[in-house]
Amino acid sequence: NRKFCQINAILEKTYYNVDTHSSESLDWFNVLIAQTIQQFREEALQKDNIVHSLNDFVSRRSAELPQYLDAIKITELDIGEDFPIFSNCRIQYSPNSNKQRLEAKIDIDLSDRLALGIETKLLVNYPKPFAAALPVQLTVSIVRFQACLTVSLTTAEEFVPTSGNNTSCDTDYGSGYFLMFSFSPEYRLEFDVKSLIGARSKLQNIPKIGSLIEYQIKKWFVERCVEPRFQFIKLPSLWPRSKNTREEKSENDDISVT
Amino acid sequence: MSFEINWENLGEDRVINDSLKEFLNSQLQAIDLPSYVSSLQVTDFRLGEIPPNIILQEISNPLNEFYEQISNEKRASSRRREEPNAKEEFAENTEQVCDSLPSESDLQFLVEIDYKGDMQIDVSAELALNYPSPSFMTLPVKLSISDLGMHVLCLVAYLSNQLFISFLCDVADPVLDARESIIDPGNSIFLGKKGLERISLIRSIKIESEIGEQNNVEGSVLRSVGKLEQFLLEAFRNIVKTEAAWPSWINLDFNEDSSDDDHDYDELQR
């Protein structure tokens, strides 16, 4: 079997035995990822109107909201200050692949506070539209995420998209390599949901509301990137090209800037 | 007040008022009339200008009873569809899919409704005067019910695209003194199903009658009108109790396939 031989040759020539190789820390990766996230956060904070622009975005799409929701206003956004820690990385044969595919398993752990606060109204459309409204204030934060991440590089041939309506990707997904990742079903995702419901007389932090929100977020997550579902992302070409070439700024340029 | 109520749009709405009128009329139709009344009909229904005050008390999962009803209905309708042929074959398959299972997105509100509004119900009746001889004469009477006062706890559950509304008890009902969670299915409200064990859901109600001028002084006529007023009050209380108070409920189905009836009050008595 050609594929099987190829994979064995790769493992041999990279000095990796899937049975005996000890797991690696990914400390170097954590640092680079943290840098990237840091940069993203700074950009987000520099435009200090990030809540503003999110609100604009939400109000532009308000026509797509379900009938029972009034316009949504974003009241809080916390993009966190900690970084994910990846560790315990090992290479294994993909299960059920008959030793024809390799994948990396990586543990991921994130303790942070990623929060989104919104204000809206639940609309009662019976017996007439907008007959009554129930004001709702919600703050949903993710405080802990622990999971085992599976990563592999692969071609498209063995997989099908879960939504069958996009024909445009036929051309796009035909060739080249893809980064595939997925989380194992035994993930841990902890939430902190704060709710305030009602106009003048309010109900605070109702467990049922918390579980309702949690359910919806987990459903969204599971339907996209928990096994047996994968995220499948086309990798760009890494062939060196002149349009991708850069060099460090010369010292003169630096001085003229400062 | 937890809910902001857009009452201006509701109170004067002809369609809503008329559908409530129809509902009451269909209920009155089912009542056995006493010998001194020959016809009883709601002629006008107005919700009025004053909205109820609605306070949200609790949010939880819907009670099992609501799921049971949906399951039973599904079972009944699937049986109806199977008939007349291939009955046996389908019976086993449908048995499994019939059960209405709780979904994570189902919700139940426990709300306190405080109503002291200006709702008015006009009723016309034919009063049979049995003195000095049976059916000596009949008189048209106009009655109006107003000043309705209620302060009750009510369940509003939403599941499988259906809405269930059931009045539980008066807020001053002694069963609430135990301070157990009212939505605990073992609670006496859910077990004690006899209406008399609870305080009436209607705190106050006023009824006025109008009959032809020339008979105003006749004592026997006035007595019968008094009896009719009493009868109507009882009938009204009974409709609320048997149609909308636990263990009965008003069921509104928002599923599209129920287009056979425009405003279907699927009142259910169990």
UniProtKB/TrEMBL annotation, chain B:
The keyword Mitochondrion is annotated on this UniProt entry: yes
Signal peptide: none
Start and end residues of each stretch annotated as Disordered: 74-94
Gene Ontology biological process terms, A to Z: aminophospholipid transport; mitochondrial outer membrane translocase complex assembly; mitochondrion inheritance; mitochondrion-endoplasmic reticulum membrane tethering; peroxisome organization; protein insertion into mitochondrial outer membrane
CDD domains assigned: SMP_Mdm12
Domain of life assignment: Eukaryota
Pfam family of the protein (one): Mdm12
The keyword Hydrolase is assigned to this record: no
PROSITE patterns named among the record's database cross-references: SMP
Domain SMP-LTD as annotated: residue spans: 1-255
Coiled coil residues, start to end: none
UniProt subcellular location: Membrane; Mitochondrion outer membrane; Endoplasmic reticulum membrane
PANTHER family: MITOCHONDRIAL DISTRIBUTION AND MORPHOLOGY PROTEIN 12 (PTHR28204)
Subunit description: Component of the ER-mitochondria encounter structure (ERMES) or MDM complex, composed of MMM1, MDM10, MDM12 and MDM34. A MMM1 homodimer associates with one molecule of MDM12 on each side in a pairwise head-to-tail manner, and the SMP-LTD domains of MMM1 and MDM12 generate a continuous hydrophobic tunnel for phospholipid trafficking.
HAMAP family per record: Mdm12
Record's protein name: Mitochondrial distribution and morphology protein 12
